[in-house]
């Protein structure tokens, strides 16, 4: 293969998942996976949680609160990124997700669990939006497509792994431990953020002048 042909060849997955870009791939894909997997993970855990905490009347609210929080946070991704930069926005996202997951694990009642799921959903929604917003600055041009594909694939992985993992933890009555595991994953990814992501500059996308989509939030 000639030099020109080699340069024109599409990058292999091993480049994205190689030593140079692996940390970035973990942060970007891990953030999306965190949000996706917890949609159905909690649904599988909820019968065990209700048996422990009571509050069966709030059963349907568990997923609703989480998804609404995700949507709200995703819509605020651009503003958050403008204000805090790449690293700050990601730390906020993983921080909210980790804190929400830990609060879920420690919840003394179903009402507390719902509130904690809201915090977890805010972090998950922010992380889901950030991945697709940051990929162009975090990876070289030749890896944009594969980076985006990797993040998109995490929704499928989450839809499959969420119920399976949730059912496994529920089988042993360890629904709290499942949320602890999510907190550990969130904290681990958060520790990688300052090491692998470019900081970016605050306000480079409009900063405080960017309006909050109030009408869309109400919808």
Structure described in brief:
With 219 residues, this protein is mostly helical. Helices cover 78% and strands 0% of the residues.
Task: Annotate the secondary structure layout.
Elements: H1 3-8, H2 13-16, H3 22-53, H4 61-75, H5 77-105, H6 110-138, H7 144-171, H8 175-196, H9 214-218
Helix pairs in contact: 3-4, 3-6, 3-7, 3-8, 4-6, 5-6, 5-8, 6-7
Description of the molecule:
- The structure is a single chain.
- With 219 residues, this protein is mostly helical.
- It has a single domain, classed as MFS general substrate transporter like domains (Growth Hormone, Chain: A, Up-down Bundle).
- It has helices at residues 3-8, 13-16, 22-53, 61-75, 77-105, 110-138, 144-171, 175-196, 214-218.
- Mean pLDDT is 86; it is low at 1-8 and 203-209.
């Amino acid at each position: 293969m000639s030099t020109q042909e080699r340069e024109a060849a599409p990058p292999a997955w091993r480049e994205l998942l190689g030593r140079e870009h692996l940390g970035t791939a973990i942060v970007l894909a891990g953030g999306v996976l965190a949000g996706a997997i917890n949609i159905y993970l909690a649904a599988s855990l909820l019968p065990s949680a209700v048996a422990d905490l009571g509050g069966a009347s709030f059963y349907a609210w568990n997923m609703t609160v989480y998804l609404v929080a995700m949507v709200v946070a995703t819509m605020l991704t651009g503003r958050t990124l403008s204000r805090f930069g790449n690293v700050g926005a990601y730390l906020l996202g993983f921080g909210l997700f980790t804190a929400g997951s830990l609060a879920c694990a420690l919840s003394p009642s179903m009402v507390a669990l719902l509130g904690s799921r809201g915090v977890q959903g805010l972090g998950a929604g922010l992380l889901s939006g950030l991945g697709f917003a940051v990929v162009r600055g975090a990876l070289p041009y030749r890896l944009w497509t594969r980076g985006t594909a990797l993040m998109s694939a995490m929704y499928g992985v989450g839809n499959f792994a969420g119920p399976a993992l949730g059912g496994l933890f529920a089988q042993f009555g360890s629904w709290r431990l499942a949320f602890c595991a999510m907190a550990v994953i969130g904290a681990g990814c958060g520790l990688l953020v300052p090491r692998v992501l470019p900081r970016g500059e605050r306000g480079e996308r409009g900063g405080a002048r960017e309006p909050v989509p109030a009408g869309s939030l109400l919808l």
